[in-house]
């Protein structure tokens, strides 16, 4: 997945809770029923881009195993971006469905 769709998927997951790269990839694979294969390494450039746009922020946390992990947290701008784009996607999906259902 590339572009805006990737960003929306990541924002949706981060809206649920803060997470780190491997866990984000694992959750995306679960939610997509493994139809979309994600790996943490390919997500980092997207996460970095999202961070530079102030949609998310990152912070270091040490989990139960004393292993530092970089966590990502959605920001207010990210929530607004997610909501705005979800509304657009719903509108576009409705238009596409209307086009495909119409008889020509």
């Amino acid at each position: 997945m590339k572009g805006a769709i990737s960003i929306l998927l990541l924002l949706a997951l981060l809206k649920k809770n803060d997470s780190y790269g491997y866990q984000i990839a694992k959750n995306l694979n679960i939610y997509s029923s493994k139809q979309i294969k994600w790996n943490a390494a390919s997500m980092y450039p997207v996460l970095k881009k999202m961070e530079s746009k102030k949609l998310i922020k990152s912070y270091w946390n040490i989990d139960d195993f004393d292993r530092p992990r970089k966590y990502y947290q959605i920001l207010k701008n990210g929530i607004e971006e997610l909501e705005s784009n979800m509304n657009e996607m719903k509108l576009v999906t409705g238009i596409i469905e209307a086009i495909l259902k119409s008889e020509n």
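The longest strand covers residues 56-62. The beta strands are 19-20, 56-62, 68-74.
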